[in-house]
Amino acid sequence: MTTQGTQRLDLWLYYARLAKSRNLCANFIRTGAIRLNGQRIHKAHAHLHIGDILSFASPHRDGTICIWRVKQLGKRRGPAAEARLLYEIIDEKTGP
Hints:
- The protein contains three helices and seven strands.
- It is of the alpha+beta class.
- The chain is globular and about 30 Å long.
């Protein structure tokens, strides 16, 4: 169930093209790899709002910490250029 102005975290990450499937996004969340507004999240059904801050170690680039601000809620999994409009990169830094 989606409340107006919110979206499930796993669905949003799938739309933002963090992983190839929604199930992979959910598994990534369950490991505690994502922080939502500074709080470690373990539930894929956590609700995301516009303006929320996500931080995580990138599953694609070893050692890179990503910090994103949610700009839009997704409507579909589109091409990468469309997915890039869902968030703003605040910082990306390579770990030690």
